[in-house]
Amino acid sequence: MKFLKVLLASTLGALLAFGVLFFFGFLFLLAIAAAGDAQPPVRPGSVLTVDLSGAIPEQVSGDPLSQLLLNEPAYDLQDFERALAEAATDDRIEALWIRPFNLTESWATLEAVRRSLEAFKTSGKPVYASGRNFYMGESEYYLASVADSIFLDPESIFEFNGFSLNSMFYAGLFDKLGVEPIIIRAGDYKGAVEPYTRRDFSDPNREQLQAIVDGVENLFVQQVAQARGVAADQIENVLDNDVLFSAMDAEAAGLIDGLLFEDEVRARIGRALDLAEDADLTTVSLASYQRTVRPAGGTDRIAVVHINGTIMAGSSDAGSPLAAGGMAGSDTIVKAIRTARERRGVKAMVIRIDSPGGLAPAADAMVREVERTSETMPVIVSMGDMAASGGYWIATGGQHIIAESSTLTGSIGVFSMFFNVSAPLEDRLGLSFDTIESGPSADMFSGLRSWTPAERASLERFTDTTYQAFLDRVARARNMTLEEAHELARGRVWTGADAFVNGLVDEIGGFDLAVQRAAEAAGLDPQNVSLVSYPGTPTFMEQLGMTTTAASRMLSTWMGHASRPSSTVLTLQRELAFHGQAQARFPLELTIR
């Protein structure tokens, strides 16, 4: 019997080892196959096709396995901008063909993408645009409007009816469940808490959100009108009064230049390039072309530190095979800034922020390291789609702040939030609780009872103290009085354009401008510097390891605390309360379409 047990164990062990080796061998072969065409040839007379869809991330790992198994995009925003700049001077590229569809990107990134397309157009090479999947909305048209000619399939949908945003509110649900939100906020405009306490927008929140939507429409109208050579009020009148819903409507309104099928568009481009009637149009995709473009090199380096996602304590989590989303962990970012600062040859730093904020102490730890870096080298802050609340907290450590016109920034305010979920647990699940404590407030964070007036007062003091620290930081960084800072704060979110007017931002522009300003401040040639990015984006295997570690931690926590209801059933409280810390965060779900 003992022999059989040993034999069985050995057999299972061998099979397991073989399975692991087979799995990793398979991944290795996939990686080799994916990387085999790393330098695709670009033939003379090529048309560069830009098939834009979904979102362009701030960073990608470039890992073939991540692209194959996790559907990671082939390039990030910096790769896109670099490739378009290279194509503008590449004699092998004769024209550009933009084909946007189903864009989910925020408007600040769309601004950056459009600026690169416009820069290519200044080369004098022709630019064409057409629809994909028989649809074009405002986001797609915003990019397509750069083109010399825009074409759509005859039966395509053309949505041109303005911009809106909406938010889901949970107050009614909480009333039905008996959940009691315990929320304190500093700032009339701090709308992040409203979904949990209201059924609609408050007047101050509606005011700021309306200004943001109007700002996006104004940006759209001005740039589209200029590109199409028409008056801005003509575009605005169509948006506000004429609901367009077909390609034929778009052609009649002068917004596109023709109704053509894709083969007809290819033929039109071929004739413009003087191709023979029966010659095939030579195209190269941006995804392929960007792999042939080498980053600019130089002995002088500018470090780029990316702060992407919700700000939290601990390590960053850029997402995993089992979970989407991202967090900027204070330990990871502080280490990244310090490592970048101490790297040989680094003469300046760009802090690239795309974050709604998060845990106030974590943001404060990050800005401390930014300030230390500012003492030794120029530090320029570049804002992406969002640098709000805790994201703006970090930005105050830089010497110069640059934002896109539609970047969401400011939101200088603080809130603290907890949930009392005792009622639904007792009334609906039949769970009851009893507590033994050393003092009357020892269990105030348990989520199993309401708070006393004294406990609420202590939370108010804590939240107000954090808000005052935020105000003081903004006032010192922006050379304002506390009263001036408070007038611009109160939790209000601004577009980058408005933030520039009111002094919260120094300049309007994108990442390239931030690199240029950093080089100038350090006395470097912007065209002869190398960029080094921190922290790196994890590869598939690294993400797999992170997922395994996270799962192990989760299982260990559950096993170790399964007898404590607050650790197992109060997930909402744990996620939203940040373990009792003050939050400087903007609502994540705001999307303008």
**CATH topology label of the largest domain:** 2-enoyl-CoA Hydratase, Chain A, domain 1
Structural class: alpha/beta
Main sheet? 8 strands, mixed
User: What share of residues are in beta strands?
Assistant: 15-25%
CATH H level of the largest domain: which superfamily? 2-enoyl-CoA Hydratase, Chain A, domain 1
Integer count of domains: 2
CATH architecture of the largest domain: Alpha-Beta Complex
What is the number of E strands? Answer: 22
What is the helix tally?
23
Q: Overall 3D geometry? A: globular
Distance between the termini: 69 Å
Which spans have pLDDT < 50 for at least 5 consecutive residues?
27-38, 320-324, 547-577
Mean pLDDT across residues: 85
> Over all CA atoms, what is the radius of gyration?
27 Å
Structure description:
- By secondary structure, this protein is of the alpha/beta class.
- It folds into 2 domains: 46-161 and 243-292, 2-enoyl-CoA Hydratase, Chain A, domain 1, CATH 3.90.226.10; 300-585, 2-enoyl-CoA Hydratase, Chain A, domain 1.
- Helix content is 45%, strand content 17%.
- It contains 23 helices and 22 strands.
- The strands form 6 sheets. Strands 10, 13, 15, 16, 17, 19, 20 and 21 form an 8-stranded mixed β-sheet that branches.
- Strand 15, helix 15 (390-395) and strand 16 (400-403) form a beta-alpha-beta unit.
- Helix 3 packs parallel to helix 4 (107-121) and helix 17 (453-477) packs across helix 18.
- The longest helix is centred in the N-terminal third of the chain and has 34 residues, at 2-35.
- The chain is globular, with a radius of gyration of 27 Å.
- The N and C termini lie far apart (69 Å).
- 41% of the residues are buried.
- Mean pLDDT is 85; it is low at 27-38, 320-324 and 547-577.
